[in-house]
Design a protein that fits this description.
By secondary structure, this protein is an alpha/beta fold. It is built from 12 helices and 8 strands. Strands 2-1-8-7-6-5-4-3 form an 8-stranded parallel beta sheet. Helix 9 packs parallel to helix 10. The two termini are about 25 Å apart.
Protein backbone atom coordinates (compact mmCIF):
# COMPACT_ATOMS: atom_id res chain seq x y z
CA UNK A 1 0.00 0.00 0.00
CA UNK A 2 1.24 3.50 -0.83
CA UNK A 3 2.17 5.72 2.11
CA UNK A 4 -0.52 8.23 1.20
CA UNK A 5 -3.13 5.46 1.30
CA UNK A 6 -1.70 4.06 4.55
CA UNK A 7 -1.85 7.39 6.32
CA UNK A 8 -5.40 8.08 5.17
CA UNK A 9 -6.50 4.59 6.24
CA UNK A 10 -4.89 4.95 9.67
CA UNK A 11 -6.47 8.38 10.11
CA UNK A 12 -9.92 6.95 9.37
CA UNK A 13 -9.52 3.75 11.38
CA UNK A 14 -8.20 5.33 14.59
CA UNK A 15 -9.98 8.67 14.09
CA UNK A 16 -6.65 10.25 14.84
CA UNK A 17 -4.21 12.91 13.73
CA UNK A 18 -1.71 12.05 16.48
CA UNK A 19 1.76 10.84 15.56
CA UNK A 20 3.89 9.61 18.44
CA UNK A 21 7.55 10.47 17.98
CA UNK A 22 9.94 7.82 19.24
CA UNK A 23 12.91 9.81 20.59
CA UNK A 24 14.40 7.48 23.22
CA UNK A 25 16.66 9.08 25.84
CA UNK A 26 18.00 6.36 28.19
CA UNK A 27 18.69 8.98 30.87
CA UNK A 28 14.91 9.45 31.12
CA UNK A 29 13.94 5.77 31.15
CA UNK A 30 12.00 4.53 34.18
CA UNK A 31 13.20 2.50 37.15
CA UNK A 32 15.91 -0.07 36.55
CA UNK A 33 16.07 0.85 32.84
CA UNK A 34 17.32 4.38 33.58
CA UNK A 35 20.56 5.02 31.68
CA UNK A 36 20.53 1.59 29.99
CA UNK A 37 20.77 2.07 26.20
CA UNK A 38 20.28 -1.65 25.64
CA UNK A 39 16.62 -1.07 26.63
CA UNK A 40 15.86 1.38 23.81
CA UNK A 41 13.90 -1.19 21.82
CA UNK A 42 12.00 -2.40 24.89
CA UNK A 43 11.06 1.13 25.94
CA UNK A 44 9.84 2.15 22.48
CA UNK A 45 8.04 -1.17 21.95
CA UNK A 46 6.11 -0.62 25.20
CA UNK A 47 5.06 2.85 24.01
CA UNK A 48 3.95 1.41 20.65
CA UNK A 49 1.88 -1.30 22.32
CA UNK A 50 0.25 1.22 24.63
CA UNK A 51 -0.66 3.79 21.96
CA UNK A 52 -1.12 1.88 18.70
CA UNK A 53 -4.90 2.32 18.62
CA UNK A 54 -4.62 6.08 19.20
CA UNK A 55 -2.25 7.15 16.44
CA UNK A 56 -2.05 7.92 12.75
CA UNK A 57 1.70 7.11 12.62
CA UNK A 58 4.87 6.49 14.60
CA UNK A 59 7.99 8.58 13.95
CA UNK A 60 11.34 7.25 15.21
CA UNK A 61 14.11 9.87 15.15
CA UNK A 62 17.21 8.14 13.80
CA UNK A 63 19.72 10.26 15.78
CA UNK A 64 18.42 8.97 19.11
CA UNK A 65 19.30 5.45 17.99
CA UNK A 66 22.59 6.22 16.23
CA UNK A 67 23.95 8.20 19.19
CA UNK A 68 23.71 5.07 21.35
CA UNK A 69 24.96 2.62 18.70
CA UNK A 70 21.40 1.27 18.65
CA UNK A 71 20.76 0.99 14.92
CA UNK A 72 20.17 -2.74 15.37
CA UNK A 73 17.51 -1.90 17.95
CA UNK A 74 15.90 0.47 15.43
CA UNK A 75 15.72 -2.38 12.93
CA UNK A 76 14.10 -4.58 15.58
CA UNK A 77 11.70 -1.79 16.51
CA UNK A 78 10.60 -1.38 12.90
CA UNK A 79 9.84 -5.10 12.74
CA UNK A 80 8.02 -4.89 16.08
CA UNK A 81 5.80 -2.06 14.86
CA UNK A 82 4.93 -3.93 11.67
CA UNK A 83 4.01 -6.99 13.76
CA UNK A 84 2.13 -5.39 16.65
CA UNK A 85 0.63 -2.34 14.90
CA UNK A 86 -0.09 -3.50 11.35
CA UNK A 87 -1.44 -0.75 9.16
CA UNK A 88 0.14 2.06 11.18
CA UNK A 89 2.74 3.74 8.95
CA UNK A 90 6.23 4.50 10.25
CA UNK A 91 7.98 7.74 9.31
CA UNK A 92 11.75 7.63 9.71
CA UNK A 93 12.78 11.10 10.85
CA UNK A 94 16.21 11.41 9.24
CA UNK A 95 16.11 14.78 7.41
CA UNK A 96 18.51 13.56 4.75
CA UNK A 97 19.53 15.91 1.95
CA UNK A 98 22.19 14.90 -0.56
CA UNK A 99 22.43 14.04 -4.26
CA UNK A 100 23.42 11.24 -6.59
CA UNK A 101 24.82 7.98 -5.30
CA UNK A 102 24.83 9.25 -1.70
CA UNK A 103 21.09 9.92 -1.84
CA UNK A 104 20.60 6.45 -3.32
CA UNK A 105 22.33 4.94 -0.29
CA UNK A 106 20.31 7.02 2.15
CA UNK A 107 17.15 5.83 0.37
CA UNK A 108 18.26 2.22 0.71
CA UNK A 109 18.98 2.81 4.39
CA UNK A 110 15.48 4.19 5.02
CA UNK A 111 13.41 1.88 2.87
CA UNK A 112 15.39 -1.36 2.64
CA UNK A 113 17.36 -1.56 5.87
CA UNK A 114 14.78 0.02 8.17
CA UNK A 115 11.68 -0.73 6.06
CA UNK A 116 10.23 2.72 6.74
CA UNK A 117 7.03 3.78 5.01
CA UNK A 118 8.21 7.39 4.71
CA UNK A 119 11.27 9.50 5.44
CA UNK A 120 11.83 13.18 6.18
CA UNK A 121 14.10 15.02 3.73
CA UNK A 122 15.69 18.42 3.29
CA UNK A 123 14.93 19.90 -0.15
CA UNK A 124 17.74 22.49 0.01
CA UNK A 125 19.72 20.85 -2.82
CA UNK A 126 16.73 20.70 -5.14
CA UNK A 127 14.80 18.02 -6.97
CA UNK A 128 17.81 15.80 -7.69
CA UNK A 129 18.23 15.30 -3.93
CA UNK A 130 14.68 13.88 -3.80
CA UNK A 131 14.47 11.90 -7.02
CA UNK A 132 16.49 8.84 -5.82
CA UNK A 133 13.92 8.25 -3.07
CA UNK A 134 11.11 8.31 -5.64
CA UNK A 135 12.47 5.13 -7.18
CA UNK A 136 11.10 3.30 -4.14
CA UNK A 137 7.53 2.93 -5.32
CA UNK A 138 4.83 4.09 -2.93
CA UNK A 139 7.15 5.38 -0.22
CA UNK A 140 6.45 8.77 1.33
CA UNK A 141 8.92 11.66 1.10
CA UNK A 142 8.17 14.43 3.59
CA UNK A 143 10.05 17.64 2.82
CA UNK A 144 11.08 20.28 5.33
CA UNK A 145 9.06 23.37 4.50
CA UNK A 146 8.37 25.70 7.47
CA UNK A 147 10.00 24.28 10.56
CA UNK A 148 9.12 25.05 14.19
CA UNK A 149 12.57 26.17 15.38
CA UNK A 150 13.18 29.93 15.81
CA UNK A 151 16.12 29.88 13.39
CA UNK A 152 13.97 28.47 10.61
CA UNK A 153 13.09 32.01 9.58
CA UNK A 154 16.73 32.71 8.72
CA UNK A 155 16.17 31.01 5.35
CA UNK A 156 12.58 29.78 5.11
CA UNK A 157 11.07 33.28 5.43
CA UNK A 158 13.39 34.91 2.90
CA UNK A 159 11.71 36.70 0.01
CA UNK A 160 12.59 35.29 -3.40
CA UNK A 161 12.61 37.05 -6.76
CA UNK A 162 8.96 37.41 -7.66
CA UNK A 163 7.87 38.07 -4.09
CA UNK A 164 7.12 34.62 -2.69
CA UNK A 165 8.81 33.32 0.44
CA UNK A 166 11.17 30.37 0.29
CA UNK A 167 8.83 28.08 2.25
CA UNK A 168 5.98 29.02 -0.10
CA UNK A 169 8.14 28.05 -3.08
CA UNK A 170 8.87 24.65 -1.50
CA UNK A 171 5.15 24.10 -0.93
CA UNK A 172 4.32 25.00 -4.54
CA UNK A 173 6.98 22.68 -5.92
CA UNK A 174 5.92 19.81 -3.66
CA UNK A 175 2.28 20.19 -4.65
CA UNK A 176 3.14 20.61 -8.32
CA UNK A 177 6.02 19.69 -10.59
CA UNK A 178 8.07 17.78 -7.99
CA UNK A 179 5.20 15.49 -6.98
CA UNK A 180 5.49 13.27 -10.05
CA UNK A 181 4.44 10.06 -8.32
CA UNK A 182 2.16 11.45 -5.63
CA UNK A 183 4.68 10.63 -2.89
CA UNK A 184 5.36 14.02 -1.30
CA UNK A 185 4.33 15.60 1.97
CA UNK A 186 5.55 18.63 3.92
CA UNK A 187 6.85 19.41 7.40
CA UNK A 188 5.29 22.52 8.93
CA UNK A 189 5.87 23.45 12.57
CA UNK A 190 3.01 23.80 15.04
CA UNK A 191 4.48 27.04 16.39
CA UNK A 192 3.47 28.85 13.18
CA UNK A 193 -0.32 28.37 12.65
CA UNK A 194 -0.50 31.14 10.05
CA UNK A 195 2.17 29.43 7.99
CA UNK A 196 0.35 26.09 8.34
CA UNK A 197 -2.71 27.75 6.83
CA UNK A 198 -0.63 29.22 4.01
CA UNK A 199 1.03 25.90 3.23
CA UNK A 200 -2.36 24.16 3.25
CA UNK A 201 -3.63 26.79 0.81
CA UNK A 202 -0.71 26.11 -1.54
CA UNK A 203 -0.72 22.32 -1.08
CA UNK A 204 -4.35 21.42 -0.32
CA UNK A 205 -3.99 17.67 -0.89
CA UNK A 206 -0.59 16.86 0.62
CA UNK A 207 -0.02 15.20 3.99
CA UNK A 208 1.37 17.70 6.49
CA UNK A 209 3.67 16.46 9.25
CA UNK A 210 3.40 18.95 12.08
CA UNK A 211 5.94 18.74 14.93
CA UNK A 212 5.97 21.01 17.93
CA UNK A 213 2.79 20.07 19.81
CA UNK A 214 3.34 19.19 23.46
CA UNK A 215 6.73 19.85 25.01
CA UNK A 216 7.67 22.36 22.30
CA UNK A 217 4.64 24.51 23.09
CA UNK A 218 2.64 24.34 19.85
CA UNK A 219 -1.09 25.07 20.15
CA UNK A 220 -2.96 21.89 19.19
CA UNK A 221 -6.27 23.61 18.48
CA UNK A 222 -4.72 26.37 16.37
CA UNK A 223 -2.69 23.77 14.48
CA UNK A 224 -5.73 21.75 13.50
CA UNK A 225 -7.85 24.78 12.61
CA UNK A 226 -5.09 26.02 10.33
CA UNK A 227 -4.39 22.75 8.54
CA UNK A 228 -7.60 20.73 8.54
CA UNK A 229 -9.42 20.18 5.26
CA UNK A 230 -12.50 18.02 5.62
CA UNK A 231 -14.61 16.22 3.08
CA UNK A 232 -14.92 12.62 2.00
CA UNK A 233 -11.12 12.25 1.81
CA UNK A 234 -9.56 14.82 4.14
CA UNK A 235 -5.94 15.70 3.46
CA UNK A 236 -3.99 14.08 6.32
CA UNK A 237 -2.66 16.07 9.24
CA UNK A 238 0.07 14.18 11.09
CA UNK A 239 0.49 16.05 14.36
CA UNK A 240 3.54 14.85 16.24
CA UNK A 241 4.07 14.70 19.98
CA UNK A 242 7.18 13.01 21.38
CA UNK A 243 8.38 13.86 24.87
CA UNK A 244 4.94 14.66 26.30
CA UNK A 245 3.86 11.09 25.52
CA UNK A 246 7.11 9.19 26.04
CA UNK A 247 7.95 10.69 29.41
CA UNK A 248 4.49 11.13 30.88
CA UNK A 249 5.80 9.17 33.87
CA UNK A 250 9.29 8.41 35.15
CA UNK A 251 8.05 5.32 36.98
CA UNK A 252 7.19 1.78 35.96
CA UNK A 253 3.71 2.93 34.89
CA UNK A 254 5.31 4.87 31.98
CA UNK A 255 3.41 2.94 29.30
CA UNK A 256 -0.03 3.40 30.87
CA UNK A 257 0.78 7.06 31.52
CA UNK A 258 1.82 7.45 27.88
CA UNK A 259 -1.48 5.92 26.81
CA UNK A 260 -3.45 8.41 28.92
CA UNK A 261 -1.62 11.35 27.36
CA UNK A 262 -2.04 9.89 23.87
CA UNK A 263 -5.79 9.43 24.40
CA UNK A 264 -6.17 12.98 25.68
CA UNK A 265 -4.06 14.47 22.86
CA UNK A 266 -5.86 12.48 20.17
CA UNK A 267 -9.21 13.68 21.48
CA UNK A 268 -8.00 17.25 21.79
CA UNK A 269 -6.95 17.21 18.14
CA UNK A 270 -10.22 15.62 17.00
CA UNK A 271 -12.27 18.15 18.93
CA UNK A 272 -10.41 21.02 17.23
CA UNK A 273 -11.59 20.08 13.75
CA UNK A 274 -13.55 23.03 12.33
CA UNK A 275 -15.97 20.84 10.39
CA UNK A 276 -16.78 17.28 9.24
Amino acid sequence: MRFTDQISAAQARNQSMLCVGLDPEPSRFPGAWKGDASRIHDFCAAIVEATKDQVIAFKPQIAYFGAHRAEDQLERLMATIRRTAPGIPVILDAKRGDIGSTAEQYAREAFERYQADAVTLSPFMGFDSIEPYMRHDGKGLILLCRTSNPGGSDLQAQVLQGGELLYERIARLAAGEWNRNGQLGLVVGATFPAEIARVRELAPGLPLLIPGVGAQGGDAEATVRAGWRGGAQPAPLIVNSSRAVLYASADDDFASAARKVAIATRQQLQNARPGP
